[in-house]
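> @MW can you paste both from yesterday?
MW: sure, first one:
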Amino acid sequence: MLTGRKSNLADQMRIAERMINAKRHNEAIERLRNIISKYPDWLSPHLLLSDALYERGEKEKALDVLLEVAHLEPFNLVLKKRIIRLYLECGKREPARELIKEVALLFPGDELTKSTAGELQSPFVTETMAKLYERQGYVDDARKIHEKLGKSASRKGRKSDAEKF
């Protein structure tokens, strides 16, 4: 009996995903909300709901869905990256920076986090990231950030932390 329920649920998720791919977003959203109402602690339908809202052009709502369920899997790197991407697409740079700092603590070797932090290029965040990498033993990564800071500071005619490194 239980396997029948799981199979039906998996079928419902596949149908919702096909609806999203076929640009039938409203139907997919309705189906996913129905699944979520029965299984609110299951992350997968929330992720698909966020995708459907995003595809429909509702980035803020897609972000809200992910923020509401982030507590379900606080160490899920894929979820955190999706949230960062949506923060940036919605123009919310400061929350993106904060989450990038958190991700860097949890997953210091993640390349996307490093490159995204570099793109945001806030001197405070960059110096913070460099110091964090240094403490965690990622000396080469810290040196690269300090070098970028040095180039930026020399253009402005001031001494940088990179010169101290």
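MW: second:
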Amino acid sequence: MKSYIVEIMSGGSATSHQIAAAETPLQAARAATGRDVWDRREETTWVRVTDEADGVVYSFAFRMPGT
């Protein structure tokens, strides 16, 4: 498993963060937030996941029910 920093973002500011161990950034985002996520588009509230080993940043948004 890899280690990821998972941050809940409001625009460009982090409102919370935690470390998650997971196989993929998507799994880390889901585990840390307890919610389903998908690729970010233009959402204001979003999830930034950073791979601690190589610094790659991934962006996800919360998936709304029915989408």
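> thanks! The chain has a mean pLDDT of 94.
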